[in-house]
Write a structure and sequence with these properties.
It is a single chain. The chain is built from 4 helices and 4 strands. With 146 residues, the chain is an alpha+beta fold. The chain has one domain. A hairpin with a 5-residue loop joins strand 2 and strand 3. It starts with a helix and ends with a helix.
Length: 146
């Protein structure tokens, strides 16, 4: 019985090790839409083969009718972006995206389900649609996978 338990523990620890990620920095972005929005992400995998950091942000046009006025990001906008007043949980875009990133880092991958409406019940602190983030981050995870 003791040998079986030791073998089982060894198998579990090897499967966890085998499911690690290659150390590196992985980036990706969506296509810019007609309003000047472009989602991007950076995934950092450390020497320990674990996801250390995930940054998600979105480039937005300062003036959606005149791109010559420049661009900013939703993170730079922070509270000025103004999602909080429309959010059912009264949280700004960057705060909600930080909750999504934290969930992915803490679980070393995407472990939540995305519903047909693009939202998830699996992340405390996020009521926004996550389908675009998942579509962007999934290929980065695949690239980093051992």
């Amino acid at each position: 019985m003791k040998k079986v338990l030791i073998l089982l523990m060894l198998a579990v620890s090897l499967s966890v090790y085998a499911s690690g990620y290659n150390q590196g920095i992985y980036t990706g972005s969506s296509e810019m839409d007609k309003e000047g929005n472009k989602l991007f992400a950076t995934l950092v995998v450390g020497e320990d083969e674990k996801i250390e950091y995930l940054l998600i942000d979105e480039i937005i046009a300062v003036d959606k009718k005149d791109f010559t006025k420049g661009f900013t990001t939703k993170r730079i906008q922070g509270e000025k972006y103004g999602m909080k007043k429309f959010s059912g949980i009264k949280k700004e875009w960057n705060t909600q995206v930080d909750s999504i990133s934290k969930m992915i880092v803490d679980n070393q991958g995407i472990t939540f389900e995305v519903k047909e409406d693009g939202k998830t019940d699996g992340i405390a602190g996020a009521s926004i649609r996550v389908n675009n983030f998942v579509s962007l981050v999934k290929p980065l995870l695949e690239k980093a996978k051992k």
